TrEMBL record:
Domain CP-type G: residue ranges: 115-284
Protein name: Small ribosomal subunit biogenesis GTPase RsgA
PANTHER family for the chain: SMALL RIBOSOMAL SUBUNIT BIOGENESIS GTPASE RSGA, SMALL RIBOSOMAL SUBUNIT BIOGENESIS GTPASE RSGA 1, MITOCHONDRIAL-RELATED
Residue sites binding Zn(2+) per the record: 308, 313, 315, 321
Subcellular location: Cytoplasm
Amino acid sequence: MAKRRLNKHQVRRIQRQQQSRTASTVTDSKADSTDHSRQLGPEQTGLVVCHFGQQLEIEALTGEHLGERFRCYQRSNLPPLVTGDHVIWQADDENSGVVVAQLDRKSLISRPNSRGTLRPVAANIDTVVVVIAPEPEPFANLIDRYLVTIENLSLEAIILLNKADLLDHPAHTGQDSEIATLLARYESIGYQTLTTSTKTEDGVSALRETLSERTMVFVGQSGVGKSSVINALRDMENSEEAEYADVGELSVGLAKGTHTTTATRLYHMPGSGDLIDSPGIREFGLDHVEATDLIHGFREFRPYLGYCRFRDCKHVNEPGCAILNAVAEGAINAERLHSYQLILQSQGAR
């Protein structure tokens, strides 16, 4: 029988697989060979504060190196680790080390990459701060997209209005009442809202106090000033640290922000808690949230779920719909129901 010939596409695919296996073998050998070529210290707990390609920056939480940071490889049998993970690691004799085990996570935040595959971003978060600003203009539906995902992760959400000083500018005349109405809508259903201005420093102290004893991540459109808030919270002007979260200018014309932060890093904030600075995104991905779970992301809808006349009620115009009745009685804001319908339609669930 003649030997089967491979086409060009199959050859390229095999070559890519071989290159991938080779790269993986090299990485694993670097991590595992450390155990044999270097003297390792005792096992101790640590915190992943940043991720650099194949290396992790680990902060020692116990032992003689308490508070020090080391560049470490991880054992090849471990799953991918992210900023915020708690681990077991061992220091070596070259001011680096090896991560040997991962401790249990209490939460994990992921977001879709360019291929639509979920990629872990940060672990062990307590609270997510959804940042909005007068510019770029805040949209309730975008805020709701964040809140749906946060609710489905069982995390606490705080809505932060940054750049509040812009409301005094003539170009934003009348916007203050619109934003006040928007924030009041979320306050009425139990979300905490805060206001800051890094330009005037108003509200920064109150936000720092709110963050106390928490591990938090900021999310929001690019250009809303997440990096500026982070720098203000870290009191960078009075700090000896040289690291700043990159601050970008707002794009002209479309009033959309520029992406600034590139690495996910954990910061210890003076007099407060821990903050994980995650790269900004223009639209929060909901592709990993099932359509049946979307409605549970609207917390004020939950008391009415299961009381509609029809089990497959879409909450549009069906008779006996408990959600529509709650809207008519003023118990649910009509704009929130409309936002839910928009999100449902965007996922092609209807």
